[in-house]
Amino acid sequence: MRLLLAEDDPLLGDGLKTALQAEGYTVDWFKDGRQSLQAALNEDFDIAVLDLGLPGLDGLDVLKQLRNSNSDIPVLILTARDAVDDRITGLDLGADDYLSKPFDLDELAARLRSLVRRSRGRSTPLLEYADIVLDPAAQKVRQDGVEVELTLKEFIILRYLLENQGRVVSRSRLEQTMYGWDVEIGSNTLEVHVHNLRKKLGQQLIKTVRGLGYKIG
Ligand code: CA
Question: Which of 34, 115, 145, 148 has an alpha carbon 20 to 30 Å from 53's alpha carbon atom?
């Protein structure tokens, strides 16, 4: 799950990036409104956390231009405490949710999970396929009721494939989901993780679509 973080405060941004990575997101962090907008328009992100007070381009303008460009990326805005007007304007401009600073990281994580769920048209928090049940909040996977131990990368791949059930997910999309755009990736790393997932969950679950990518369902 690839997340765009727009936050100019270095301490808060750093803390958010670390916390969100621990939640299994691949985080690309921008400290400037204009760069955030460019990245959101040119790259595939699954969700965005947008501070409203940004240099370069104000967060509300970033949001406005995003929606004017028909981007439907789920956006959670971060506002100053008591900034009721900003929250109302942000929601009316197409933000999907908001949190006021200071906020609780667990609450942010829960709200993001809920946004992802809604953006995929799901009302249940669990991802299920055949005998597999993945719980995004608890970061746990069960097969036939028995918990299966996965590494964080394996979990991220499985979650993304389950989120996109029935659709082919390209190798590059999965790699971006795992690493973001600023890390060199070993050419067979994805294969290794998929191989390990198949060993743990059965060979039939993840199908290789030759030349295109991978698919569940
Ligand atoms: Ca700020």
Answer: 115
CA of 117 to the centre of ligand 1 (A): 27
User: What is the sign of the dihedral through the CA atoms of 161, 166, 171 and 176?
Assistant: negative
Ligand 1 midpoint to CA 108 (Å): 17
Ligand 1 center from residue 19 Cα (angstroms)? 18
DSSP for 27-74, written as a single string = EEEESSHHHHHHHHHHS--SEEEEESS-SSS-HHHHHHHHHHTT----
pLDDT at residue 184 tops 70: no
For residue range 195-212, what is the model confidence (pLDDT) as tens digits?
999 999 999 999 999 989
Instruction: Examine the pLDDT at 156 and tell me if it is beyond 60.
Output: yes
- 6 alpha carbon to ligand 1 midpoint, in Å? 9
Q: What is the CA(165)–ligand 1 centre distance, in A? A: 37
For the chain, which domains are there? Answer: 2-119 (3.40.50.2300), 127-215 (1.10.10.10)
How many Å lie between the centroid of ligand 1 and the Cα of residue 119?
Answer: 26
What pTM was estimated for this model as a whole?
A: 0.76
| Ligand 1 geometric centre to CA of 175 (Å) | 30
Name beta bridge partners: 133.
128, 142
List residues, by chain if needed, whose CB lies under 5 Å from ion ligand 1: 8, 51, 53
d(Cα 171, Cα 99) in Å, to the nearest integer? 34
